[in-house]
Amino acid sequence: DSGVTQTPKHLITATGQRVTLRCSPRSGDLSVYWYQQSLDQGLQFLIQYYNGEERAKGNILERFSAQQFPDLHSELNLSSLELGDSALYFCASSASSGGHTEAFFGQGTRLTVV
Amino acid sequence: DQQVKQNSPSLSVQEGRISILNCDYTNSMFDYFLWYKKYPAEGPTFLISISSIKDKNEDGRFTVFLNKSAKHLSLHIVPSQPGDSAVYFCAATPPVTDKLIFGTGTRLQVFP
Question: What is the pLDDT of residue B1?
């Protein structure tokens, strides 16, 4: 158990809909990261938050947004969903921001858009 | 543009032998490298890391080697065990950041 909790584990929704994925980081970790893993692909970095503020942005679509709340949990909002958004979405957390620290991953949310 | 590449999608090794997983990167600014292991239906689990100021780091059966001039790193598992069967991801971080840039993974199968 990594200590990172993601809900829900599975989500099936229709095209055009909006969903929210939730992540609770390990106790004490200030950084939260979101990654997307599509079929047969590596993990693509989407966005990082550190102590409530956006710290780094990757290949995140404009239809996607995220935030980190004062209690440090984070939500990833995906809107106007398309079939191609079907993927595993992982949240990870780490203690620091600034390099040389490993991140701990949750079990992921499998999103299926039909 | 794939900055971290794992060119072998799969590897099959007999139990007790050495497993060698390879990873290449294109960005010479990367200064920290990690290996993660992933079982089905689970998130990636951190395995071992190496800083760019070193060329080797060892942790039990796992050793990571870094060749900066070749922009290449490898993970050695000795001896390999059936429980090591998983997908292994190589990852790199640019300086002053800890976002991870992952390769596409290598599926390792260790058979008896």
Answer: 66
